[in-house]
Amino acid sequence: xNDQRGNRDASGDLVARDARCVWHPYxxxxxxxxxxxxxxxxxxxxxxxxxxxxxxxxxxxxxCLHGHGEPQLVEALRAQAARLDHVLFAGAxxxxxxxxxxxxxxxxxxxxxxxxxxxDGSTAVEVALKLVRQHWVQHGESxxxxxxxxxCGYHGDxxxxxxxxxxxxxxxxxxxxxxxxERASIEAGALEALVARLGSSCAGVIVxxxxxxxxxxxxxxxxxxxxxxxxxxRHGVPLIADEVMTGFGRTGELFACAKAGIExxxxxxxxxxxxxxxxxxxxxxxxxxxxSFLHADRSKAxxxxxxxxxNPIACAVALASLALVDERDTPRRLDALGASIERELxxxxxxxxxxxxxxxxxxxxxxxxxxxSSGGGAGYLSTRALALRALAIERGVLLRPLGNVVYAxxxxxxxxxxxxxxxxxxxxxxxxxx
Length: 434
Ligand SMILES: Cc1ncc(COP(=O)(O)O)c(C=O)c1O
Known about the structure:
By secondary structure, this protein is an alpha/beta fold. The chain contains 15 helices and 16 strands. The protein has 2 domains: 11-57 and 329-430, Aspartate Aminotransferase, domain 1, CATH 3.90.1150; 72-328, Aspartate Aminotransferase, domain 2. Pyridoxal-5'-phosphate binds next to helix 5.
């Protein structure tokens, strides 16, 4: 059956066609329920073909910053597509990319002055790792080949990003193909001892500042980040801050690094960079790192690029999103939203809040259900998460628990009513009879 726009509107038909030819990410097709047939979205809500509406409590994999279909972003997209849709970014440049680089440098932690564009969080991380590694090679320290990362870290699904991520539970099969990475627990002394032990073989340190997302919304104190910074300074190795999830206000500050008062040597951003409307990523670095690639020998250039590097439409949408972040003070809004969800959960849970490790950083609120081990372990793969997802959908909310970790990270436009609906859905997962 076709609607007025010629789309098939029968959700059953869409789902059946999907089942015949589509392979979804992070999906066990033999076990999981059919995908939600989404017809449209606006603000914090997704509309399904069958008429149901769901609150997008996880900002569509942490991308949607302001809300779906934000008119100013739609207009920026439309206008830029008509002016310049795409052009290669090697040997050419354009206004949206230059302006966006200027705006990112202006807002980023001090010292980050160069912007290298890529496509998504994983590629922003690949770029950071490759820049650091090539820098050492070109400076006669090619023995520096071991990166230090944190236990339960996640940095994406491409090979370099998998290598620095915790192998459990997703990446064990690829282990023989991944380069050597040493992992420290979130403890300043452990990280210092590890970097000291590696000595001149250490290439750099990569962290998700303040919140480790996919590892189970694990939150650490700003003091730990400051200690990581001090360790990197002491041993002369670069600190890479992966703010793919935390960037653009999720922690209540524009960047988690700013919240912790540290300045990384490299910064990876993606997801919320375009307000979640289009894929775009950037890796920011300091001027000396950039300058270290300048050479009369062409082979010393950074040979990395993607077909859609600095796509003008994505850059224009990112500029419109940054303008909204300023205009609306999005970090403060997200913080207030997170606080309201946390308050409702805390009031309903009472003394159990502590047992469930109810926690919040800005607009990110999480708790651990008793039972399975947490997000980074085998619990992530239990079918319980699927049942929990279904239960939340029955309550009109899209949640995607990470194993036993139930969390919310809604877009900034989420109304008080929808925030309360999110809190009630989370409570229903704690007490299914609720
Ligand atoms: C901290 C972090 N880094 C990198 C990535 C990878 O980003 P993408 O999925 O856009 O490749 C993610 C994705 O969730 C992330 O949370």
